[in-house]
Amino acid sequence: MLSTMQIEAGVHVAAVIEPGSEHDHPFVRGLESRGVPVSRIVVGGRGYLEEYRALRELIARIKPDVVHTHGYRSDVIGGVAARRGKIAAVSTVHGFTGGGIRNRINEVIQRFALRRSAAVIAVAAPIVDRLVSAGVPRSRISCIPNGFSREIQLERSVARGRLGIKDGRLVAGWVGRLSPEKGADVMLRALSESDANWILSIIGDGPDQDSLRRLAVQLGVAHRITWHGTVSGAASLFSAFDAFVLSSRTEGTPIVLFEAMDASVPIVATTVGGIPHVLTEADALLVRPDDPSAIARALGAIQENRGAARERAFHARGRLLSAFSDAAWADAVNAVYEAAAGRAAQR
Description:
By secondary structure, the protein is of the alpha/beta class. It contains 14 helices and 12 strands.
């Protein structure tokens, strides 16, 4: 996320993009529409050296005070490029996904890179503990939950029309990357146990899409699911949902949760990562991870008592506006930048 203050201060984004999407990438398009200068670095999945050289050249040209990276590949390659250019490297860690052997090897390499960063931002308290246990000095870690810049919500009827939802249907929304850590399979199993009046709108793409579609057929719920894929401006469409479900197995502080809170949509969320620090039982129905039956029961509770669900959603929106403003987030991040740049200058 970028705040207005950061844009005005002179942020320059290096967007590493796979070949074929460089001319109309939604992330880049959104940044440029806000006046953010973007340098496209177009490399294949294994173009590590090419990416490093492009970043070194960009750093030498624009001479930033800080290089801020996100994600294991960026932390490793961008971090090395920054340090070689004698620039402070700051990383934000949104979480560790775990999973297969390849992911675990990547995370070992990432943790080594993070130990050499001038500063590391963790978006949730549990991540701080993981970083310290991985050898990152506690003095270099700042816990800064994600902030939120509000989006304009479409009217419910307009949002439902955009998603092709017929009036009168109870719709659970699921938004995210279709990969194991996000738990879309848990949501499908929950749908199979829920009242038949509930249908599911899934917004997002990912490597598990084909296997999830097969699972939906096996569970007998394929006819109750609409797979929307990647949707431009999805943050404005949450008003279409009667419930938003976050079924993740692991998380940091997900922006998608803030988007649901802002839309005053009743929320069902797993108690992983930073989620319990964002939501209380007064704001949402909180369930254990990997428990589809609990999600199904929560959807049933929303269906049976719409008044209580609306009250929780109203409370969640108030919490969002009071505790997670983008201005407070930007101030905290800028303080990290100043400290990191100061340490780099001393070296």
